[in-house]
Amino acid sequence: MILNLFLFFDTVFQSQESNSFDWFRLLEILSTLSVGGAALYFTYLQYSNQEVKKNILKMQLEAVSKLVQELQETIFAFTMEFVNETDGDGELGVIYFHEIGQASLRNDYQAALSNKNFYISSDCLHRTKFVSFHSNPFLPKSIADKLKIFSDINYAASSIGKPEGNFVILMTMDELRDKNPTEITNSYKLIDPHYRTLENYFDSIIQVKYAIRFWCAEFKVKNMNI
């Protein structure tokens, strides 16, 4: 294209010396310049688009990495309380995020996981940090949709008081450290039919894990320890 530009000026100078102007030659050179300029412009656009995609993907990876880190630091605690003292003093369980997939395999958790008299503490429902990631604009939608489920759960405010039958409370590890589980009265009864038990709730967390794995696999990131 630069060569054609030189040829253009050479043609002009020669035309001026011969007192004639080769309009056909001028149009030919201008046409070549236009095509070359357009090609250069589209090449620039393509490069810019690739850079934008790379930057967005980088921010998505950062968002997913932060979510995984937050999930790995999440610890759930649950207690199964017995209404009748003859049934026992209650059962306590502590589960790390990476252990949730194996929770159903533990015989000592079976009664708590399947108990339909299921409550969740206020802190666990509203202050669990990983749930807030669903509003991150750079979190892949396939993962954000699985997280948003937790913020959309239907529940009814309830003071446990004297429930009928044995009951299970899911809480945060901080609550377990700060108070006796039987003192957690600021809790909610989940009325969403998909979350009638602790096992249902844990199943949704497992779906978040799968969503992260599937998204990472699209970019050849496999064998993640989550």
Task: Describe the fold and architecture.
The protein is α+β, with helices and mostly antiparallel strands and 226 residues long. It folds into two domains: 2-57; 73-217, no CATH class. The protein is 52% helix and 14% strand. It has helices at residues 2-17, 23-72, 100-103, 110-114, 122-126, 141-151, 173-178, 198-217; strands at residues 75-81, 91-96, 118-121, 155-158, 167-172, 187-190. A six-stranded mixed β-sheet has the order 2-1-5-3-6-4. The longest helix is centred in the first third of the chain and has 50 residues, at 23-72. It is elongated and about 95 Å long. The two termini are 55 Å apart. Mean pLDDT is 76; it is low at 2-6.
